[in-house]
Specification:
Elements lengths: L24 H17 L21 H18 L18 H25 L13 H11 L21 H10 L2 H6 L19
Length: 205
């Protein structure tokens, strides 16, 4: 299978990317690593999985695999469907419409996290970040992920999330991380709290 992923060169700079001489790789893997993983994951989202190695629409999975995938995807839809960012707004996340992007968010983050652990295995543990020594490298990874979605938005110009394929930025942080066992472990989130709910975490991969 040939995978084509387009990443604009402009994002390969701070604060999304720091070169090896002036940055902590935990932050790089959490931000640009996630972005790369996200885009690659689209090859196996609910649309990408329907194409074979030649790029043709074909049923190349076993029926059992399709059944299990559909079950897991339905779990994700139920998690996202109806989320409101602004409580008094009629706009809500459409779990079905945003499914592919939500799959890519969750899978991309997981891929980037384990890629970072592999980096540590090869190069050793990184030093603590000056000024933020209280955070472990694993915690910095997730901070790097969340930071890219942090920006000011004028609430007076509300966007209708009923008709977009991407979940709102706040949902892409809170919901994705709440579905991540790796995040809960890194931050020692008690079971049953908002960031580590008891509900099925809907892992596609």
């Amino acid at each position: 299978m040939i995978i084509v992923t387009l990443l604009p060169v402009s994002i390969l700079q701070a604060p999304l990317y720091y070169n090896e001489n002036n940055g902590i790789q935990a932050l790089n893997y959490g931000s640009i690593g996630f972005t790369i993983g996200h885009e690659l994951s689209h090859s196996y989202d609910n649309t990408g999985r329907q194409y074979n190695e030649l790029g043709n629409v074909a049923q190349w999975w076993t029926n059992k695999s399709v059944e299990e995938y559909t079950k897991r995807a339905s779990c994700l839809i139920s998690h996202y469907d109806g989320i409101k960012v602004v409580s008094n707004s009629s706009s809500a996340v459409n779990g079905t419409l945003t499914l592919n992007e939500n799959i890519a968010d969750i899978t991309g983050l997981k891929e980037a996290y384990y890629a970072y652990l592999r980096y540590v295995d090869l190069h050793g543990q990184e030093p603590r970040l000056p000024g933020l020594e209280r955070y472990s490298q694993e915690q910095l990874f997730f901070l790097g992920y969340a930071n890219q979605f942090c920006h000011y938005k004028d609430n007076g110009n509300q966007f209708n999330y009923n008709f977009t394929q991407h979940s709102p930025d706040v949902v892409r942080v809170r919901k994705v991380l709440s579905l991540s066992p790796e995040f809960a472990k890194a931050w020692s989130c008690p079971i049953g709290t908002p960031m580590n709910p008891k509900k099925d975490k809907c892992q596609i991969w």
